[in-house]
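INFO  loader      accepted 1 record
INFO  loader      residues=213
INFO  predictor   begin
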Amino acid sequence: MNDAKTRKIRYEGSISECFFKCYIASSLFACTRFIYKLKKKISMPFTPFHFGPALGFGLPLRKYLHVPTFLVANVIVDIEPLLVLVLGLNYPLHGYLHTFIFASLTGLALGYVMFSFDRFLFPIYKVFRLVSEVNQNIRTFMVTGVLGALFHVLLDSPLYRDIKPLYPFTHNPFYNPTLTSDVYTFCVWMGVIGIIYYIGLFFYPILNKQSSS
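INFO  predictor   done
INFO  writer      dumping tokens
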């Protein structure tokens, strides 16, 4: 009786693992098609693509980085062009926030704010597997905020002529529009890696428990 039960558990575990692998394969195929179309014509705004590297780097490093802060930091800098467009401001789309100096200051401020709310949001982060079991200190939050904001500026710099990442110097040595499709492709693939890793955070404990039973 026990042998039959064990075989059943292993069989169900193998089915779950097979389903998980098929899901990953289909996701990679869909992503490859998306990238192929993306290289032909890039017309989408770049802001959502920043979530790709945020997930791809943040989740595997969640013991060392605060993932929610890293996610927000990778896109918060684009509040600048959003306000310019919505309010019709006479101001560059990529102004001071798209410089390493002011992006760093923005990241520090974000890190402090996220740390202040962590006592309330930590249980939610745990449910969604966005953080490790150990509470992180304020230094981790601030470093994470700075890294995320700087990463945003670094990815934007090859794409837009008006960015001045090395302000007060006005020259943008990273500007290279020929890298546009490569930057988009990098962001998409990092997003795929992050999504697969995130799904694995939920499935791996289940599969591991079934295989050990």
